[in-house]
Amino acid sequence: MRAPPLHVRIGADIEAQIMSGAWKPGHRIPAEHELMAQYDCARMTVSKALSRLATSGLIERRRRAGSFVAAPPLHHAALSIPDIRADIEAHGRGYRLDLLARSERTASAADRAALQIKAGKVLALRCLHFADDAPYALEERLINLGVVPEAAAVDFSAEPPGSWLLGHVPWTEAEHSIAAIGADADTAAALKLERGAACLRLERWTWYDAGAAAAPERITWVRQTFPGNAFILSAHFSARGA
Amino acid sequence: MRAPPLHVRIGADIEAQIMSGAWKPGHRIPAEHELMAQYDCARMTVSKALSRLATSGLIERRRRAGSFVAAPPLHHAALSIPDIRADIEAHGRGYRLDLLARSERTASAADRAALQIKAGKVLALRCLHFADDAPYALEERLINLGVVPEAAAVDFSAEPPGSWLLGHVPWTEAEHSIAAIGADADTAAALKLERGAACLRLERWTWYDAGAAAAPERITWVRQTFPGNAFILSAHFSARGA
DNA sequence: GCGGTTTATTTGTCTATACATAATAGCGCA
DNA sequence: TGCGCTATTATGTATAGACAAATAAACCGC
After folding, report:
1. Which of A31, B58, B133, B176 has the most CB atoms around it within 10 Å of its CB?
2. Per-residue pLDDT tens for A189-200?
3. CB contact under 8 A, A20 and B170
């Protein structure tokens, strides 16, 4: 077993103190020059270890004051939002897409609200994802043609719109909401469920924010509805920075 | 406006190239010595910028080969898992807890499966969270008394078990799953819903992993069921490392 | 005691250099 | 041609020192 780099070891030692509960939130961590003496190394090395812990949120650093154990980690989980086709194929099942509706139109009031635009053209899609010929998810999507004009020329009856967008359009921010709903008549018919059956509904807004230079632009809005019994989102959280 | 540090500026410049689409995935980023010449600075400064981009997943670095724009960002979102009491109170509503059942027992087969233990004692709780006297969530919880013996002495009819645990037990890992279910008779009665009403079900396993030194220990398992219409999980993702 | 000024401490950034490590590319030899 | 060795190159880690910036603490005049 090969020795890990020194700055990793220093970071791990401090992390162990915190995780074991020996150093509680607010506890002052030895100053850089003390750790420097303790590990007999340069300040840059100690600094690297502490900076990493600071960016991972485990400690907080203040000039002149020192470094302190941060407040207990918030309950933030890394949630994997699936690429539906990839997910289905990863389970060894056959994927099929059925494009139910496609309309290119001037944005309606509802479209404008979803994409947060004042005016413009949108591409509205409605499609059904199948896994081994069983309905897997109903997808309703709006694409802002003002930002992604080339989407108008794509044949979405073959490629899932989500996969196409991910591969072709850079984006920086996404907002999700997850809720449980009872299937309405429409949804129930599409997914071959009984009316009122529990479904997981995932909504996502994706946009591109170039920074202060330009206003953020909404790229797409999507609402995916999964039968509740067939779909589970999972998330993992580690208190360690990694 | 004060000038940002040089390593931040270098990182931002590279990020801008990637985000604008000018440098596509796989594109080779100028080597450290080239950036060094371009910005007229030391290699450490360039290295700091590139390391940060690498840990945030935007670029990939390989010895001898160089640094490359990484594959498009994965769809990972930071999901906020709520502290129920804090959430309710933050909305200005009154919180109340009703402890429906409490039993301290030797772990049953189901308990052992949920906590991944071979044997031992557990504390099983079942409680109902109220917001302004309306049922908000049904919680079923198991606490591993082998790891948290002091939980046996806590009065959970006043303090929500989740809040108590968060404040008293260090943990490192949590795994969540989210699903939509139709309320069974039991759940429907507790939450005052109709049978079959759509509910969001959140399950969470929390454990402590001290590293290679010891086997990970499961601390608690919890299953929270929320009326679908009253509860929405939200998540935000930024492609930037921050 | 109170408010403002100075001082000392600690972190933040950066330089310049050195050696280690990984991995590719090319060369020589069978 | 194909295999193995070597040289090259880019990154990874670390040193030692310097100055800048923030700010808590001490000080001082009133």
Report:
1. B176
2. 999 999 999 999
3. yes
